[in-house]
Structure formats: structure tokens, C-alpha cells
Protein: Lipid II isoglutaminyl synthase (glutamine-hydrolyzing) subunit MurT
Organism: Clostridium gasigenes
Amino acid sequence: MVKTISIKSILSIIVSKFTIFLTKTLLKGGTTFPGHVALKLDKNILAKVSKGYKVVLVTGTNGKTTTTSMIYNIVKEDGHKVITNNTGANLYSGIVTTFIDNYSFFNKVKDTYAIIEVDEANVKYITDHITPEVITVTNLFRDQLDRYGEVYTTLTKILEGLPKVPSSTLVLNGDESLLGDLKLPNPTVFYGFNAILNENKTIEVNADAKFCKFCKSPYSYNYITYNHLGDFHCPGCGYKRAELKYSVDEILDLTPESSTVKFGDLEILISQSGVYNIYNALNAYAITKELGIKDSVIKSSLENQSSSFGRQEILNIDGKDVKIILVKNPAGYNQALDTLCLNKDSFGAAFLLNDNYADGRDVSWIWDVDFEKLHTLDINEVLISGMRCYDMAVRLKVAGLNPDLFILEETFEELTEKIKTSKSDKIYVLATYTAMINFRKHLYSKGYIKKLW
């Protein structure tokens, strides 16, 4: 039986579905334009096409796509029907496209989850039409300064959407000082680290939220995981980290390829490296536990995750082991560099820097990245590309890397050729968003990637 729906909505869905077909067939992508078309015809279409789904919204600065993928895979492994916007089309129109693409006029949605990544500034548009089961915020770092400004602006944008859905459970990063004591009516649980990574208790000069959000005193830390995340407390007003319901209680091993940790008594091998991916996995664990999924299912899924869409995606390019890592702000970049620092053997590294709108026009943030930690590593070649490759070259030279190792290639064609003839068998490609997208498109055209989106 066809569900009751207005003629305007039917037209919106049909035209959008046709547009989706055209963009997938002709453009090999295009995940936001069909949503724009649908919204032009029916501005309330999202409420109609999302009806019946149990929705989990994932937002925050870093880790959205990986966390969304982890949750999706766990829910799927538990036997549920589930959809997601796996390409990272996380603006309002892209999310509309996702729901319309999965919409059927004849089959009622039943026991189906939608695990949806959403841009921080777009949360308020989604919660106008959807009441999620769960909303999670991963962290808040400086990102795209020309769009968001400081982290407090990003927090404000997210908070514009949360009061509209007071029944949604909030799963928040407790180590993120900006997310504590939000004074919202929502049921709220926190996750974070109870394991100490190092003895450092002094926050970095360039950390993003060093001062108490209530009294502006500098935070003190029992321990820091990275940037401003950790077990914080304010000596001025007493504000401190909330009690954690879900936590990393022991770190058993950290390698350039993976991490082995304990969430409570549950030992898990996380198949993506870096402390930030431990946070992502813990977030996925917390959310799926809140959804009632068993430890055994979560463990099995997390230990068999494949990297998604430029997030530690591993490729073989003519026998070279190439790992693509998305880097888009100082906090995430420093974590990527920490992963490189775990290498005991020599390797090659490529740095791709663009300044398109989606990257942020202002690239001055690269001076807040601690590239200096690289100059002691055994790096065979330093490949540099992207629209702002010369800015990156200057930054790396100032950081102490040997300019004799620099190879600048403005085109991805030439960059790929240099990778193929590299002296290194292992090469890390650290790329900003549009550089990663365009590099993947080039590799797809050459047959090195089987699935573009």
C-alpha cells in the first residue's frame, strides 16, 4: 500500500530520485544536488522520508565519518537494516539525498536505523524535522576558521539544534571540556579515557580550549590525551570532567597499523591506528551499548573495520603500500603525525594542501601543526602537492626537514608517478579534504581505487 503523502512530496521524491540516478550515472557522484532539488519542491521533505527510522546523529569536528562508519557496521552486524551517508555528504541537502535514495513508496520502514553524519552547523536544520534516538558530539577543535571561527562558535551552532529534541539521548566526549554541564534536559552519558597515555599534564600552547568556559581560569589536568582533551578540572570554579559511563581503561598496544585497548574488561583490537581512532571506537561502543547491542557483536565488528573514504584508507599502487590520511586542522594533523612517529622503519611521506572552500581558505593553521617532530624520523622522500604546495614546502623546511628530500609536484598525475618510482615501500599521504577527494578521483581513473564513493 502506498503511504499517505502529498502530491508535492511525491513530486519532490520522484524528481530527486531521477536526479540521483543522473548524478550517479553521469557524474559518478553528486550527493548534495539531488537534496537541493527535493527541498526546492518541498521544504519539509526530510520529515516525510525519514519517518519510521531510528536515527543516530554524529557530529563534531574530527572523527565524524569514521565513527559513523563504525556505528553503521556494528548495527548491521547485529542484524538490523541500516542506512547511512557513507560518503560524508553531511550538509542538510546531502542528508535529504540519503533518505530519498533509500525511500520506497510501497514498503513501510520497520526496525531500520539511519546512522547519519551531520556537519556541526547543520544540526539545527536536521532536528527541525527528526527526533534522533541518539546524538553524539565527538570533539570540538578549530577547523575552517573562515567558516566557523573559534571552537566556542562551533559549540554555539551545535547547541542551536539540541534544545529542539529534548528526548534524544546525548552521548558526549567527557574529555572535551566544552561539552560538560550543557544544562540541557536531554538524558546524557559521557565517554572518555581513564587510561594515562603519558605523564604530560601541561597543555600545548596552541591547544584549542585552554580556559574554563565558566570562569575563564586556565584548566589543570590529571592527564592529557591530545590537544585539550583529557581529565580536566578548573581550579577557579571547580568545574571538572563529568563522570564517565564508558571509558578506555587500559592501552595494551599502539602501532602504526592498529591499537589494542580495554573498554572496561572488554579487550578490543582497533583496526585503525592512532589515539583519535581509539576515541572514535569508544564513541561507537558507547552508542551501540546504549542501543542495546552485545559486547561480542561490538568487539567482532570493531576488530574487522575497513578504513573508509580517505580515512587511513590503504591502497596498493604498483606494489607500494600507500595509506591516505585526511588531515584538516591542527589537532587532527598532529594525531596523524603521531601515527607516523610510531614507525621504526623508513617510509615516504606526501603532503597535499588545498585551500578550496571545503578545506578553509585560510591555510595559516599549518603553522600550528607540530611538523618539527618529523625531522628525526627516517623519511626517504618528502612529496609535496596541492594548490598550496609551496606554502607546505616552506612550513616543512622551517620544521627542519631536509629540503634535499623535497619533491614538489603540482599535478596528481606526476605525484602518482613519483609514488610508483619511490624508494619507499610504505608511503603516507596526508591530504586536506578536497586534495584527498581529487587525488582519489585521479587514482580511480587509473584503476587503483575500485569504488569512488
